[in-house]
Design a protein that fits this description.
Blueprint: E1 30-37, E2 46-49, E3 59-62, H1 64-76, E4 82-89, E5 93-100, H2 107-126, E6 145-148, H3 152-163, H4 165-174, E7 182-187, E8 191-197, E9 207-209, H5 218-233, E10 237-240, H6 245-256, E11 261-264, H7 277-284, E12 288-292, H8 305-323, E13 329-332
Parallel strand pairs: 9-10, 10-11, 11-12
Antiparallel strand pairs: 1-5, 1-6, 2-3, 4-5, 7-8, 7-13, 8-12
Helix pairs in contact: 1-2, 5-6
Length: 333
């Protein structure tokens, strides 16, 4: 998509991890969850150990690189009018929740660049003379990702997501088949659905339903698409059966630009069925969750209006439940 067609983010080229929001003034007070990725040529920032079933048992053991980052963050915070309620130094990335409480004269990007440089500098100068390279190596890949918390509820979810990173990491490490198993989702106490794929998408800080209407005017349809793109580009996870062409357009944008999504399926899953084609690739990357009926049927469901409405209602119910912070009931099949 050419830049002129994207009103929200600069340089909309794949990958889009480091986009900045054109609608947002990064100098003004706001709340963000920042993600900065490790230079792939360097050792891990940390080692995470423990039992993912016991949060109290989880430990983050910082490497010399991680210790330099921790020191740099502590020295960086007093330099700016910011509050950092939580941060996590993971093996291959760091998350920092930043509350900007007064104007940043040179903007957020300049402040984060200073932090990244400080991390690299502290580590560089911590090395013995005989091991210190002549040229300082950056600890990170170029750029960073920001997710803007527009509401207090979103801010709370982003902090919880940051703090929960080590547990999710251990689950994926200890139970690699989590992304291949079948899961049973219970909604409203007694309605059950089967899921395949990355169940952690249901725990992301923001889920949003993608649904158009046959009664929309052209202007309303465009406004809906712009809102969906805005939520997608700000880290939201779209959930929908993606039946209408406008809904499919949003799904295709997510696929092409590196985002994740949840698809409500029109049927259940055969016992040994597996996704194929692009959905196989997306699921192997942890970017897709499929939710279907508990019973498998070979009969192709007629996509009548009432059936499509039921699928859309389920998408809304799941998104609303997750966004309220209410835990969805999930167990292995």
């Amino acid at each position: 998509m050419p830049p002129s067609d994207n009103p929200f983010y600069r340089e909309p080229l794949h990958p889009n991890f480091n986009r900045r929001a054109l609608h947002h003034d990064y100098r003004l007070p706001a709340k963000y969850m920042l993600t900065i990725l490790k230079n792939p040529d360097l050792p891990p920032f940390s080692q995470i150990i423990g039992d993912p079933k016991s949060i109290a048992d989880i430990q983050i053991l910082l490497s010399p690189l991680g210790e330099a980052i921790q020191k740099a963050i502590e020295e960086w915070i007093p330099l700016y009018p910011i509050y950092v309620p939580t941060h996590i130094i993971m093996p291959d990335h760091i998350h920092i929740c930043v509350d900007v409480i007064a104007t940043l004269d040179k903007g957020l990007s300049r402040a984060v660049s200073r932090l990244m440089g400080k991390c690299s500098s502290i580590y560089h100068h911590s090395l013995p003379d005989r091991l210190r390279p002549e040229k300082m190596t950056s600890l990170f890949t170029t750029g960073f990702n920001d997710k803007i918390a527009y509401t207090e509820e979103r801010w709370k979810r982003e902090k919880n997501y940051t703090n929960d990173n080590p547990r999710r990491y251990l689950i994926k490490k200890h139970y690699p088949d989590y992304l291949r198993k079948r899961w049973l989702l219970t909604v409203s106490g007694d309605r059950q659905f089967v899921m395949m794929g990355n169940i952690f998408l249901l725990k992301m800080p923001h889920l949003f339903r993608v649904k158009t209407s046959r009664h929309y005017t052209a202007r309303e349809a465009i406004a809906a698409m712009e809102q969906w793109k805005r939520e997608l580009f700000n880290g939201g996870i779209p959930i929908s059966p993606f039946i209408h062409p406008h809904e499919k357009e949003l799904k295709n944008r997510a696929i092409q630009e590196g985002y994740s999504f949840i698809r409500i399926c029109t049927h259940g899953f055969a016992e040994r069925a597996a996704p194929t084609g692009i959905e196989f690739e997306l699921m192997s990357e942890g970017r897709l969750l499929l939710i279907g009926q508990p019973e498998y049927s070979t009969r192709k469901e007629d996509l009548r209006y009432s059936f499509a409405q039921n699928l859309n209602d389920l998408a809304k119910e799941i998104a609303d439940t997750g966004n309220r912070g209410v835990a969805l009931t999930i167990r292995p099949v």
